[in-house]
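User: Here's a chain of 70 residues. Predict its fold as tokens.
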Amino acid sequence: DMWKFFFWSMVETRFVMIVGDFSIYTSKSLKDFIYECNKGKNIFFTSDVEQAIKRLSIEWLKGRDLIDAH
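Assistant: Prediction complete.
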């Protein structure tokens, strides 16, 4: 089940994936915060669940040196 995967991913990999439509917000501070989070390694903002699963999968593989971290 998808929610178990997300919960496991957050616990196992220490990532937080926040899914939603953030384009509706006009705050420059919020946009900067989202941008900086997405450049990091622990907190990610994405617009849909499919992107979230892809990003979590990539980060999980990077954490295990199974793919290039760059």
